[in-house]
From TrEMBL:
Gene3D superfamilies: 3.30.70.2390. Residues 33-110 are annotated as: Disordered. This is Putative glycoprotein. Residues 115-203 form the LytR/CpsA/Psr regulator C-terminal domain. InterPro entries: LytR/CpsA/Psr_C. It comes from the Bacteria. It comes from Amycolatopsis azurea DSM 43854. The lineage of its organism: Bacteria, Bacillati, Actinomycetota, Actinomycetes, Pseudonocardiales. Pfam families: LytR_C. Residues 40-64, 72-96 have a biased composition (Low complexity).
Amino acid sequence: MSLFSGLSRPMKAAGLALVGVAVIAAVIGGITLTSGGGDSDTATPPGTTPTTSDGATPPSSQPSGTPPASSPPASSAPPSSAPASSAPPASQPGQTGQPGPGQPGGDQQASHKWVTVRVYNNSLIQGLAERAANDFRASGWNVTEVGPHQGKLPKSAAYFRPGTDEEAAAKALALEFGIEAQPRFEGIQNAAPGVIVILTKDYDENDKSGGS
């Protein structure tokens, strides 16, 4: 007996149409299941890294235009700086390495050796003033002139103008070389500034250089 027996013609036509739609749906569903199963076999599960056929991991690709990550440069400590040692200023010419007026000296005697000294011979001993000038220079004194002195003096002495730098310088020189230090007398009162040393024969007797 047919499935559509007892139905009117219009109803039979509608039934056949429904059967056809069901058959088509079944075919489409079968195709979908077949293709979906194949995809599930080859798809890579989330969170895993795909591998090549020989088991190696392919290199990761990076989007174009993205700069590679770089580690921040190591901070370099600033170079240590040591204070530069300051060299003492060079002595001015004519001062024989000694300080000028008002400058502190290494000792009381050396601090006066910048004062000019003129040496004169008041004896009959040839070259006495020259020899004394060499003695003074060897000790650092600033001898600027050597010559004879007319007149008669009793003793060798270093003469100065009181109240000036000459006074301390004359006393220091006299102490060092065993002569006297005295204020200038009338004959040399207006002479040029500086210590004036006038030598007699007693300097030759006490000459530290050993000359005769």
